[in-house]
Design a protein that fits this description.
Length: 97
């Protein structure tokens, strides 16, 4: 359970950057671009920024038994699920507007 909580904390730290990048994509490219950026590109960019700015944080996760690859894979899976739910909610809201 502790591993899952740590993985979720890692994902939350990437979420802000991902949503910000995706919002810019929505402004400049529309909703279709937003969906693709949110699912793949935004997450990869947020991981890249984290890799450059916060390398030392990986030591915390490693000491808790979580490898960098596990963080990336589980983070991507969490991002995929979050993205699908968010896109479905936005589609429902847009249909009613």
């Amino acid at each position: 359970m502790r591993k899952l909580a740590n993985i979720f904390e890692f994902y939350k730290s990437t979420l802000t950057m991902n949503v910000s990048i995706s919002a810019l994509a929505w402004v400049f490219g529309g909703f279709e671009t937003f969906k693709y950026v949110l699912v793949i590109f935004g997450f990869c960019i947020s991981i890249l920024i984290k890799e450059v700015n916060a390398k030392n944080e990986y030591l915390f996760y490693y000491n808790n038994g979580i490898s960098k690859m596990q963080l990336f894979v589980y983070g991507f899976l969490l991002n995929f699920v979050f993205s699908l739910v968010l896109i479905l909610v936005i589609n429902v809201v847009l249909k009613f507007v």
